[in-house]
Amino acid sequence: NNSSFAYSINDYGQVVGYSVYDCGQRKAFIWDKTKGIGHLNVKSNDLSEAYGINNSGQVVGFSVTNNGQRKAFIWDEVKGIQNLSISDDIESSAYAINNSAQVVGYSISSDLIVKAFIWNGDKDIQELPGFLGSDINISGQAIGFCSVPEHNNRAFLWNGSEEYQDLGTISNNVNVQFFDSEANSINDSGLIVGSSDKLINTEQEGFAQRAFIWDSVNQMQDLNDLIDPSYGWVLKEARSINNHGQIVGWGIKDKSCRAFLLTPIS
Length: 266
Hints:
Layout: E1 3-9, E2 15-20, E3 26-32, E4 36-39, E5 48-53, E6 59-64, E7 70-76, E8 80-83, E9 89-97, E10 103-109, E11 114-119, E12 125-128, E13 132-136, E14 142-147, E15 153-158, E16 164-166, E17 181-186, E18 192-201, E19 206-215, E20 219-222, E21 234-241, E22 247-253, E23 256-262
Antiparallel strand pairs: 1-2, 2-3, 3-4, 5-6, 6-7, 7-8, 9-10, 10-11, 11-12, 13-14, 14-15, 15-16, 17-18, 18-19, 19-20, 21-22, 22-23
């Protein structure tokens, strides 16, 4: 394959994402250090992507059906793939699954309304106050992004109430009202990772996408400031963090897009 993108890691070090091939195919994969990489048995056309995995090995993402519709799925080794039952959706995608098998993602209804959701099985679907639900932890804290008045898209944290917390951007100390941020993953300790626009050149008002980590004490920090610059990486987006603090995502190294795994040294 030409390239690969890692999107989620569980506490056992299993990683999911997708591979991109020369012919344009995208195939969802699961990887572990014993079996290596394997593609999910997705019964669809040549496009599928995996975004989330829990400690039971349940994987969520989307596949494109033979009639061209994007549909959220849940997969495991025993049952294989199952489409999520979301009524009145013409498009859907699942982005994360917690260890209680709660799934978050987004759906588009037949009247073209985009909504973030929590899926608790066939019996219960709960709407979130955003356009996209990216992740949910064992406490039911959900994250994603939504449109904020007088701003662009902003990362949010939702604790189960009607209100949500705007997590801001990396460059909060300057006038960056049009900068975007997106929260991609939250672990059971409440650590959040994602990506944010960051001011790079004040004189030219230049900005670039950078991976971040957020906690309630330090707020949002650029992950590039927390690694040795001699490694030669520019970390662009952090996609997942597990309960050991390991982070996966993608960045630029040697002028190529590469998947990365960060492991805390303390």
